[in-house]
Amino acid sequence: MSLPGNLFLLLGAAFCFLGALGLFRMPDVYNRIQAGTKAVTLGTLCVLLGVWFHHPEWWTKLAAIGGLLLLTNPVGSSTIARALFLAGVRPWQSHPADREV
Fold this sequence. Notes:
With 101 residues, the chain is an all-alpha fold. It has 3 helices and no strands. Helix 1 packs antiparallel against helix 2 and helix 2 packs antiparallel against helix 3. The protein is elongated and about 55 Å long.
C-alpha cells in the first residue's frame, strides 16, 4: 500500500464525514444542500485519487467517475435548491426581526 493513496483515502473519508455532519448541523435545507454537495464531492474525489494511487491501471474508470461526479453534483444540487425556492421554501434568517411575516 502506498502512503499517498492511504492519505487521500483518509482525507476523503474525513470530508465525507464532515459533509454528513453538516447535514445535521445546518439550520435550513439550502445550507444542508451546500454542505452535503461540496464536502461530499471533494471527499469522493479524494477517495477516487486514493484508489488511483493503489490501482493506477483503473485510471480511465476513475476519471470517468470523477468527471460525471463533477458534472452531476452541482447541477443536481442547484436544481433541487431552485425547486425548493419555487415551491415557497424560504431561506433561514438569523434575526427574527428580519423575517418576513
